[in-house]
Design a protein that fits this description.
By secondary structure, this protein is α/β, with parallel strands linked by helices. Helices cover 32% and strands 17% of the residues. The protein contains 14 helices and 16 strands. A hairpin with a 2-residue loop joins strand 15 and strand 16.
Length: 501
């Protein structure tokens, strides 16, 4: 195991490898036909193209892939039904064969994975895993986990992508294997009796190293920044799922010089229930605990009741069943690792601190706006069947960043990197190649170099000797108003039909 320690402020020089906007290759826009990979345009005469539409003052016919427009008031775009309708009318959706994961049983060598421990501050031990190499200028990719899991959730990325890149995954402080290694509080002894509490964090006094410690999104953002500067020591591509997506975006907004690109995997757009003192000092005074140690005893009873419900193996199984759209996915390893974490004596207090921690100094929307203003490249990959972070959230990001590639994967739930790692790894490789080549290599699945138009393809791969297929919808930077209106009215009619069936 690799063990690193650093308590001082970072001093390693970081070179900003991101090119200014003017140095990047500008997309070439063809002001002719709005094309889609769903079908080719063979007839450019609008008089013989009844499904196209004609604009007064222009001598061109425009056709674009129909996508699902706003559904009711939620703004959910659901492309599946429209794409099925298009398939019936125009033929099958193109299929793309992509590589599967390395299969050791077939002699395919995966990248070796090693574990490490980095002591950020005294008693602040951060667990991480890594694969691949930093030699030959290979891009470095850092993965951030969602709430309740850790670096183990990225095993399929570490073993596969580690063949091409330097790949890192860390556990946030207070989670995974970055839980405290000793009690952040101590009990006052009376009459020489020692109080033996199976749960840490509820003592009478705070240990000096844990003063002002709160497991908050601000802490995790700072943790990531120091880890990159002191351990990786060069700008990185950062990928985050769920909570990790928010942290990745927050970090990039505060440290654009350390980021080459951000990928959001079903990123949660909010975190924390209580006001941040820096944003709302008066309101924050009403919540004096704010997740610091020692945690109030009055809080312990409520938190402990909730904790016992959550840590129940049946609850963990049920939650995993909800967030994985494909129930044939083997979740045994993820289940056992989560269960192992809940048995740690620091787990309850860490959970309580997280639940009581204030919101971040930057909201998700503010972080997004900063990234946009600072020209941080962002890519979106969202599982369509996520019951928590619905497609509407990804599309809200896409609305603010029209040029950002947005891939909607189906079937896939809240954790597409673990459920369909073949697809996510394929898309990540393609996106990184696109950025590294400054746009000379096209985005994955996109034949039109501008990335303006919608594309749907079925990605096929082999897993455990069986062929599987996943549909990926790429949303371009432009979609015709006509398509959105048509899709919207189609949705409304379908909803009415469902109600009366």
């Amino acid at each position: 195991m690799e063990i690193l320690s650093s308590h001082s402020a970072p001093c390693y020089p970081i070179v900003n490898s991101r090119k200014p906007v003017s140095d990047r290759r500008k997309p070439k826009f063809d002001h002719g036909y709005v094309r889609s990979e769903l079908w080719p345009l063979h007839n450019h005469n609008h008089n013989h193209n009844p499904s196209g539409f004609y604009l007064n003052g222009h001598n061109r016919t425009f056709k674009s892939t129909p996508i699902r427009a706003l559904k009711a008031d939620e703004g959910v775009i659901d492309a599946k039904e429209v794409l099925e309708d298009v398939t019936k009318r125009r033929g099958s959706i193109p299929k793309v064969l992509i590589p599967g994961l390395p299969d050791d049983s077939r002699g395919e060598i995966s990248a070796p994975v090693s574990s490490g421990s980095w002591e950020w501050k005294p008693k602040f031990n951060v667990h991480y895993e890594r694969s691949g190499s930093k030699k030959n200028g290979a891009p470095q990719v850092l993965f951030l986990p969602g709430f309740g899991v850790g670096s183990f959730h990225y095993e399929k990325q570490l073993k596969d992508l580690g063949q091409d890149y330097g790949v890192w995954a860390i556990d946030f402080l207070g989670q995974g294997m970055s839980l405290a290694r000793e009690d952040p509080t101590r009990q006052q002894q009376q009459d020489g009796d020692h109080v033996d509490d199976p749960f840490w964090g509820f003592g009478d006094e705070t240990e000096p190293w844990a003063d002002n410690l709160v497991y908050s999104i601000d802490l995790w953002q700072e943790q990531v920044a120091y880890f990159i500067q002191e351990v990786i020591k060069e700008p990185i591509y950062i990928v985050g799922n769920s909570l990790g997506g928010y942290v990745a975006l927050y970090f990039a907004a505060c440290n654009p010089h350390l980021v080459k690109g951000v990928t959001l995997l079903n990123a949660t757009p909010f975190w924390g229930f209580f006001p941040n003192p820096a944003r709302n000092p008066r309101l924050a005074e009403m919540f004096p605990s704010a997740g610091t140690f020692p945690l109030p005893l009055r809080v312990r009873k409520v938190i402990e009741f909730v904790w016992e419900k959550i840590r129940d193996p049946r609850s963990i199984r049920e939650i995993l069943k909800q967030v994985y759209a494909d129930h044939s996915t083997n979740i045994d390893k993820v289940f056992s690792r989560i269960l192992e974490i809940t048995e740690h004596p620091a787990a309850l207090a860490s959970f309580a601190s997280i639940m009581l921690a204030p919101q971040g100094k930057l909201s998700f929307g503010e972080a997004l706006s900063r990234c946009k203003a600072q020209d941080v490249p962002i890519c979106l990959m969202y599982g369509k069947e996520d019951p928590w972070v619905r497609p509407v959230w990804g599309l809200q990001v896409k609305k603010k960043l029209p040029e950002a590639p947005y891939y909607q994967i189906s079937p896939a739930g809240h954790c597409p990197h673990d459920e369909v790692p073949e697809v996510v790894n394929y898309l990540l490789r393609g996106w990184i190649k696109n950025l590294e080549s400054q746009g000379f290599v096209a985005l994955p699945l996109v034949d039109d170099e501008s990335g303006r138009f919608d594309v749907a393809k079925d990605l096929e791969y082999v897993r455990d000797g069986k062929k599987r297929s996943v549909r990926v919808q790429f949303y371009g930077s432009e979609t015709s108003i006509w398509s959105r209106l048509t899709s919207y009215f189609n949705t409304q009619f379908q909803n009415v039909n469902i109600k009366f069936m």
